[in-house]
Amino acid sequence: xxxxxxxxxxxxxxxxxxxxxxxxxAAGAAGMGLLSQASVTNAxxxxxxxxxxxxxxxNVHHSLARWTYQDLSVxxxxxxxxxxxxxxIDLIGPDDWPTLKKYGIHSSxxxxxxxxxxxxxGDTQFHEALIERYHRHxxxxxxxxxxxxxxxxxxxxxxxxxxxxxxxxKGLKQILPHAEQRGVVxxxxxxxxxxxxxxYFADNSAWGIExxxxxxSDNFKLLYDIYxxxxxxxxxxxxxxxxxxxxxxxxTAGVPGRNEIDDTQELYYPAIAKAxxxxxxxxxxxxxxxxxxxxxxxxxxSLRNAVHICDV
Length: 312
Known about the structure:
This protein is of the alpha/beta class. The chain has a single domain, classed as TIM Barrel (Alpha-Beta Barrel), CATH 3.20.20. The chain has helices at residues 16-31, 37-49, 74-84, 97-102, 127-143, 161-172, 176-182, 205-215, 226-232, 236-243, 269-278, 296-310; strands at 61-65, 88-92, 106-110, 148-151, 185-189, 220-225, 247-252, 284-287. 48% of the residues are buried.
């Protein structure tokens, strides 16, 4: 997961590693002079006016991580998403929810309560601020009619993983009753610490699953990021099959490189999507790859292809 900080009051903070990804993503096109705002808008309008939608099967609930298409405004992205044939966007905060509602797009994973990706629930020094922010944001999510709210373990800073688990339980138990009352599901994302997020507590499924067990609440789940867990531990399908009850949401991206999920990378997403469906999963599978084309029309085609690949 990654996203740009669109909110000056820090409701959507971003880590240094994520910021560098976004800068690289944006600068690559801007530096070559290939993506003027006019061309971006034209590509989005062309896609949204197309009458040819994918013949989606309806088995998978598709979504898209907002930060991966930063060249498009939220309004333009809503039009593109609808033109492809699905209706959900991930990692988007309260400021943009009115635009989503205007276009009938669901906020499939809300954000904005977190401090950032490194200062999380595994460290007690951040609990006071996190508890205040999550109490408030749980109400915002519920009042808007949404369900999923992302959270993060944060970094170890020399702390033993077991102590991090104990700290996370202590902190999260202070907000879970409110989440349960309001029908909001907190989803902690699993990251890899090998390539993208050094020192992150929840860098393996076992740590996250143990946290779920200790909390014992249906309102706390794991956001299983397939890209991150392939890097951290592999064995994706077996892990999903054996532990699906703890996974409330899924993210995609190609390995290595975090780009398209086509045959240029090592994961076979049709089989992964089938394995997810076989568990009875009814939540969202969100595309979170960084498209490689420089032309916006081709970037949109990358998204169309990814949805088709996962539409099993």
